[in-house]
Amino acid sequence: MQLAESRRRKWADAKGPGRATRATKEISKSPKSLREYEERAEMAWLESIVTDDGVASASLHVKLGTFARLDVAPFLLLYALLVGVMVQNEVLWNLAEAAGLTNEDDAQKAAVGRSEWELIAWSGAIAAAVISHVMTLLSGVWSVKLRCSLRYRAARDLHEAEAVCIIPVEHRGMPAICELHKDAADDVRENETSAKSKDKTTRAPKTRAQRQRERMEKEEEEEQMRKSQLVSLRSSECWFEFQRKRFELVGSIVDTQTSNLCKFKPLDFPDNLMISSYLNWPGYTEVGDRLAAVRKWSRNEFDIPMPPLRDLFFENATSPFFLFQVLCVALWCLDEYWYYSVFTLAMLVIFELTVCKQRQQNLGMLRGMLHPPYPVWVYRSDHWVRSLSTDLVPGDMCSLVRPTNLYRPMPDGTRQVEDEENILVPCDMLLLRGSCVVNEAMLTGESVPKMKESVLSLAHAKSNLLERPLVVEGSEFSNHLVLGGTRVIQHKMEAIDPLDKEKPAGLIPSPPDGGCLAIVLRTGFYTSQGSLMRTILFSTEHVTVGDKDTFYFILVLLVFAVLASAYVLVEGLKNETQSRWKLFLHCIMIVTSVVPPELPMELSLAVNTSLSRLFRLAIFCTEPYRIPYAGRLNLCCFDKTGTLTSDAYFVKGIAHPSAVQNFSKDTQIAPTLTPAQESDGHAIFVIAGCHQLVRMADKVDGDPMEKAAVRAINWGMTRDSRMINRASSKAKGERVQIRILHHHPFSSTLKRMSAVIAVETLDALKRVKSSKIMVVCKGAPEKMVEFLEEEPAQYKESYQAFMLAGGRVLALACKTLPVTVSETSASLLSRDECESKLTFAGLLVLDCPLKEDTRDAVDQLRNAQHRIVIVTGDNALTACDVARQLELVGDNHEDVLELSPELEWVPIDPRASPPEESVRRFERGHTAAVLVQQEGKHLVVTGAALDAMEAEMGGPSSHGFARALRRLTPHVTVFARVSPRHKEIVLAAMTAAGCRALMCGDGTNDVGALKQADVGVSIINSPEHEDAVKRAREQVADRFTSKEMRKMSAADRIRMEIQAMEAEKQGSSVVQLGDASIASPFTSKSTSIMSTVHIVRQGRCTLVTTIQMYKILALNCLVSAYSMSALYLYGVKQGDTQATIAGLLIAGLFMFISWAEPLETLSRERPVASVFSASVMVSLLGQLVVHFASLFAVLHLTTPFVESGAEEMRPDADFKPNVINSAVFLVGLCMQCNVFGANYHGHPFMQSLWDNKVFHRILLATWSLSVLLTAEVIPGLGETFELVPLPDTNDYRAKLLAILLADTACSWAWEFMARSVLA
């Protein structure tokens, strides 16, 4: 009891103070016994052993011996019992015979009866035992939880544990049992501990001075260890690996024995230390330390093994569906359907081999994404050495350089020049010295180069960030981190400053290749690139309508099958002449007909077709299970800048301070703008000096808005990154140039950036005539006002007037530093010192037009009943102007209300002054629905309002805040000035409110929101990719004129399409890691948001296709169950050839039905989201009645033409063609066509039946064949299908044709009615 109580307290403490009470209550709920109390404490302990976002639960286990396993021991006893009973019965019978207890006649009769019934009984008992044993063994293969229960037992403590059972969170891979590795140091430490404990009992107690001296020595040793090592290099005593991720024990095994509490955490990396710790790290100075690092973190590579085809096929062959299919084939073989069985088995094996081969190709494609290692310079043992990128370990000091003329060793000993595009940063690094420009499109979806600065700049500026821990995932240190998978396109190594020599990082000599000095933080699968690889490798790939829907759907079918099987069994047992063996076999076949063998094949066809279509549209999907989610969407959220609007900015002009001060809001006209080229003064210096543009070869690259502003003032950048006035440089007189001494980069949180610049006037001989040092700053107008020494008159009214007109407004400010301040001192100024007491220099007004097809895409989504929401970090007025252009809000500004920081709904137009009685309070979101639904208002919520809601309602984790957001978000049209954190909580609130949300963004700021949405779409703005694909397709299309296309055969057209696909692949460089982004499940390499329309179209098509497959499968199964039950008792059965033809027809129709392409235009009608919707269920019931009535009518029509006592009419007789079998086959063939044709959905989500030419031609040909065979137009044709000539009396053929036509007309009419009325 004390042990359990101790575990309870420790577990509650481990959960934290907020959860301790709940943990105590959960364990202490009135236990019925001491054992139950201890079990609850044990469960609480086990639930908390792994700390990771991707792990839902974990438990420790001990592997059982072979004869102790629950899937072996009970069955050995069962087999022994069966053998014993059999031997005992045989012995007793022989003894009875030997004793003469029965006369000869009675003995003979008893022997005959005994042999028949004993054979049935013992065969059934042995079969039940073997089947139970096999199913138990297979259940351990199918389910990890069952495998744990059968082959393992729960471990009492960590010391005896041998394995860990890991259950990941949903859609994050499959559960697994991981081997628990324990180092040999465990036993040594345990022996040392016991020796110390014994020594304590024998040695004399230490004096106070001795204890103090030992404590000082220990502290000194620990301090020396901290100085010599960046992070502990000692490997954990106990660890396991799950999904290429290693988890280590916190503490030691001995500690867990004393505290009864263990916890595993992911392998620790030096990625969360103080910034000063990295600057004080001298690199690995000892070979032993580096070897220890290799043992702990392993090599910097992505180990993606290629499993052999044999292993993949065995894995698929042991799946439940495949084994069930094989069972069905075996049953058909026992019923002597040889052709059908062989055909079905061959189809299954070929399909599984195709799936395995496709999986190998996918893994090969993924392995092909990886780039080969290349040599890098690494600082080890106080000197620079060459090493491969795969040999890097965390803590290594390495050179980060733009790759040029790198060589890759080939197997034959030669060296091959590596393409610069294929050289990526090998791991996550922190930049210690120097600066570089990188392309992060693979990680963030932004193709705009990013400037990275060293953390020594924080030391120079005496920033408070220097003594704060590094956060890799946050935006605070993003300008100092170079992540794995990105590409360095420019680098610059700065000279070693005397101040840098105070730090060990400043004492390291410059790399021999002139690269930047960086420290390795994370390697392998633990990097940002590795996280993307693990997502692709382990994310769920199955596409279904829904697990619960599927389970209940099959359960309903099973009920029908069991009833039909019971009916056959009861009726069959009444007939004493019927074979009991065939009766039981047939009953089992009826039950197994519930789950058709082609079910997994059809679902795989649907998902593969969807993925291939999206890939051809340059959309890469890492989580295919989300494709049907796109068919259920009712809400689409878009970022504004770079997503809805174009990157092609143009400058409207500059509003100088005089124009701002003279502005009168009564005129309702914005202040006067001066053209950028005609402007002068400090505003020009701010635009030319405050930016993050970089010079790359023969062009300047960077943020499109900054490029447009610099281009508008007619300034340019030289090769040494100086800014010059092009107009003055062409003249022979004086000219002005700007040198950027230091800059503080833009932050989405701060909404501003600043720089320290030197403005120099040069004479005709390019000598510096005069110079001054300035601080220039630009940012959001509402934020910049806080840093102005004096706010100009009409400042707020001016920038709001420009924003109301749809302009993107930036406030410009600057200040001139005293002449006594040197360039070095100015560069060391902190950000707070730079951004204080600034002088207003003007307002820069830009226009950012919508992308070419943004309006078309938004209109299509709106017409398809999707609500459109803008979620942006831009100003509310600018965002509302974009919403007005897209007709999301009206032209009347009075109908647009903004939630103020005071939590009041006020008009967004700042010129409006509503009376106090008309102002509505927020009231925890209750008024939002009233304003939108009853008064027709459009709502705007800003980040400041969200912060005010958090403060008023108890913080972001409070239930009140979450409830208010759930009420608010479904009614808001624009979220403006929101941070990345705000975007994330807004999307989470939308999904919690029951909305099916899509989020589309193009940058780092959208990553959290993209992950929270049901469907996240990341746009990689890559015009080069689109141009390459377009050129490749045009080259292929130019080879053929329209006349030549009409003359082409189908094979030639397919060949041309293949050539176009190959050209597209070449244009997009096949598949690279940049095709997928870690930001979201869907990544589009198109600059247009039309990709969201494509995803919705494909999602609807996939959802409709999957549901109609379920309908068809249900009808086929139920009709088959009826035919095998009610009609079976009349002797109706199929021939082997007939079953094979029906199987071929069904397989072909299912394949072609999955090839239906979605329509180009989205419809207002929504697809049915569930199998159990009213329209689906009514349609199924009605069609079943029609088909059952047709079969009953055929049976009634044909019964007079067969002899009731004929041998072939017995249920257990072999198949022999007769009139009733022939008639039922013809009607069944027609029914198959009607089932597929009537339930083919077509418009408005996918191709119509007539547009799907191959599908409708097969249907028409099959239906016509059934009519021809019924009418016997072609004599002798029926013999091919095992048919007999139909009677030619009493208009039999005409009546049978009438039944075919009636079944066709009624089934199609009923489906049309159900879809029209109830859908």
From TrEMBL:
Entries under PROSITE patterns matching the protein: ATPASE_E1_E2 (PS00154)
Residue ranges with Basic and acidic residues bias: 23-34, 188-202
Compartments (UniProt record): Membrane
Protein's UniProt keywords contain rRNA processing: no
P-type ATPase A domain location: 424-495
One Gene Ontology MF term: ATP binding
Record's keyword terms, sorted: ATP-binding, Magnesium, Membrane, Metal-binding, Nucleotide-binding, Translocase, Transmembrane, Transmembrane helix
Annotated ranges, domain P5A-ATPase transmembrane helical hairpin: 67-155
A cellular component annotation (GO) from this entry: endoplasmic reticulum membrane
Highest taxon of source: Eukaryota
GO terms of biological process kind: intracellular calcium ion homeostasis
Residues passing through the membrane, by range: 67-87, 119-144, 312-332, 338-356, 551-569, 1112-1131, 1137-1156, 1168-1199, 1219-1242
Membrane topology recorded in Swiss-Prot or TrEMBL: Multi-pass membrane protein
Region (Disordered): 1-34, 188-226
Name of the protein: Manganese-transporting ATPase 13A1
